[in-house]
Amino acid sequence: MTSSVTITDFDPSARNPLYDEFRSSWELNRDFAEMHLHVLRSGRYLDPFGAGGEQAGEAPAQYAWRRNAAIALDPCSELVQLRVDNLFRTPPVRRYEDSPFREFLDEFLRNVDAAGTDIDSFMRRGLLLHYVNGVDFAVDKQSPPAGRSVLTLAQERSLGLLPYLHALGPLERLDWACDHGGRYRWVRYDLGAAPPADETAGGPGVRQYLTLTSDQWRLYRVQASGEGRTTTVSSGPIALGRCPVVPFYYKESTRSDCPKVPLSLLTRVAPIARYLLNLVSQVQIDVYRNIAFLVATGVEADKIPGEITPMGCWALPDGAEIRDLSGDVRHIQAKLQLAQLLVEAILRIGKLTHATGEAVGRATSGTQVAVERTDLDNEMRMTACQLEQVESELIHLAICRYKGQAVPRDQVRYGVEYNKQYVLTGAGELIQQARELAQIGLYGPTGTPALLKIALRKVLDALAGEDDKAYQQALRQIESATFE
């Protein structure tokens, strides 16, 4: 339900001091999670040599070359994708057959963002944001068509105005306040500029800001014009008794002066990746400075060919000599060792190596990362449980906003289960593990064949997905095997 639109002098773009303090960190995480070429070439994260020092800074030509040659070798993106791909290896299973809101849920789950996105796609994208910077899921409600005013719930239903979800990261969350329990009292998001209605519509669109409180929503529209800008606000009630926002964070700061500040998978990793980017750039310069030069002695300079090509032939006078001239490479080796240490630190923090950062050598496939299965598996299982809790909370809030009143949770009758079977080890290694289990006598009347079946199920998961036609058949064969 909406009220009339009024003009206000309030500035909805005002930011919380914590936003300004953490903004550069959130941007760093975002950029290294998805390092685009233009970010690399801009030199945003590439420090010029001697910058800020008393000596003269780096020559512009050399810095321009380093920008154009910059490469990101960090595994930040892989840390995120590994987790997302495993958690969505199989689709979530939802149960609401006996819910009194089944008809609403059927429609809502097919289009949770009022833009045609189904719940699986929406939550998968939300999981990506969760790992990069954290994400807030806000439960909003569709606005009436232009020129229509809605005053009752019946009018909302007649116009088909349904709840929908926003996925908003900390870079869109401009200002907020929390109670003593760390829950939002109110929060304001920058929704961005409205897209133009047509390609021929010129100029910037109206910029929108959304404030949500425990009992009200406010939508600000800022229209820029030649004479300045005009800000209007519309508002309406929220009959929930709580702010309709569900945070989904990897971790959250425990500092009392940093309420609702998310800590992501990349919070510790991205600064290391930035240092690695600069170190690799230094190595590139060092390598090119140490490329061998040919030095000719005992011959006149004008007798030396101006071009040197493979398979060429020089005619040199007696006593002339050609030799290589190159510099010391020990400093390059030291930097490469440091780069390897940084990569291992990223993998260790990302739980893709043991706590000591150990890498296992494989004769057939080179050096591969040894997955510390227990820590990463446990982390993703906890995230799957968190996803279930978050989605259930979103469904409850959506139903409350649909009904226009607080609905008891036990009346919703909605359940969801996310995948908890992950493929973190190669099939070859799993087969070897199963072979070793069989060799130590786990089968037979006095053995423990159930443990061997667990190992074989892991092999099956590594070789095929549950949607494979032969998967269920193979699973039944493993369950019925006697191993005698």
Textual characterization of the structure:
The chain has three domains: 7-35 and 72-190 and 243-265 and 376-417, no CATH class; 267-308 and 318-346; 425-480, no CATH class. Residues 355-372 have low confidence and may be disordered. It has 13 helices and 17 strands. Strands 1-9-8-7-6-5 form a six-stranded antiparallel sheet, with no helix packed on it. The protein has a three-stranded antiparallel sheet with strand order 4-3-10, with helices on one face. It is α+β, with helices and mostly antiparallel strands and 484 residues long. The protein has helices spanning 17-33, 37-42, 60-69, 76-87, 102-110, 119-132, 153-159, 269-289, 330-349, 373-403, 427-439, 449-463, 471-480, and strands at 6-7, 93-95, 135-141, 163-168, 173-178, 184-193, 207-213, 216-225, 228-237, 245-248, 251-252, 262-263, 293-297, 321-325, 359-362, 366-369, 415-417. The chain is flat. Strand 15 (359-362) and strand 16 form a beta hairpin.
